[in-house]
Design brief:
By secondary structure, this protein is an alpha/beta fold. The chain has helices spanning about 5-15, 45-55, 75-90, 100-110, 125-135, 145-155, 180-190, 210-215, 245-250, 255, 265-280, 280-300, 320-335, 365-379; strands at about 30, 95, 115-120, 140, 160-165, 190-195, 225, 235-240, 315-320, 335-340, 340, 355.
Amino acid sequence: MKHFPENLSAKLEIRKQNNALRKLPLSSKRIDFSSNDYLGFSQSEIIFNHTHEYLITNNVIQNGATGSRLLSGNHKLYQETENCIASFHQSETALIFNSGYNANIGFFSAVPQKGDLILYDELCHASIRDGIQLSNAKAYKFNHNDFEDLEKLILRNPNTIIYIVTESVFSMDGDCPNLEELVLVSTKYNCYLVVDEAHALGVFGETGEGLVQMQGLQEHVFAQIMTFGKGLGCHGAAILGSVELRDYLVNFSRSFIYTTGLSPHSVAAILVAYQHLEKDSASILKLRENIVFFNQQKNLLSLKPLFVRSKSAIQSAIIPGNEKVKTIASQLQEKGFDVKAILSPTVPEGQERLRFCIHSYNSTQEITEVLHLLCTFLF
């Protein structure tokens, strides 16, 4: 095998020295406080069996899409599923992408044009930032959830087409922007608001529809990115928006055009997960109760100052230093709890954290125990 390039070896060595080298973890049977499977849909036998039944009933005996959707891969399940998603989210259309990463890359590399401006929250996900890097538009970040800072940037760029980008739940902090205020700003200056709802789908709203729709703001949002690998427990993503936006993406979004479509089974799983989401209010309610209980317990244990303020399923305890946070994560894992350390450079240096993901299937006893252990290892 050819010798590995020295400059790449040097980059790996720096990661090792900073105690930040990533490795693929093995699956574990620990109590889950790390996955994005907020409602337990990835483990649902009902969804698994209904997906299989749907494929058999509709005589879909096919393992792969066979090509891109513009060639041979646009099987009939796509239209039914996209219609279901659009109806569920009260959107004109929905266009399925192969993943949330593909959707963000495809949107931001194609839609904002040269001469346009993208203003994005400084804590936006890497997939958004990567898409922005591929765009010909200028881009500036604004301070996290700081709409005064955003407005200053808008005023410095008059007579410009501006896209404002945020997430309804931020993936590392778990907090939410004031979407009503953000809509007022975007409307005032005639900007195009784009909201990534990856960590809100299945968590917010009576039927888990997400934060934008829960607040009745969907008519004021240019595009929403819904990701299915979290609350829906399957795979893929969709961009919600107007008919014109869908047509534009089909014609110009390279991550949509130049990739093999999802398999019929993957698309059927999305459809069945959405159908299940409408009916499974018990899981959504239990998740909300667990989030409230987690917040109550961390307050009772005087842990509140450590945590980023969050009412979502993501609860992050800031424990600066890669070595320290990795040590505490390992101690919790040794006690049977799957809690992950988030290290720099994934988060800024000094903002390293334990990221607790709350699920509908976590028990109050598990929540109490893991927080008591956290106290023991910290103090």
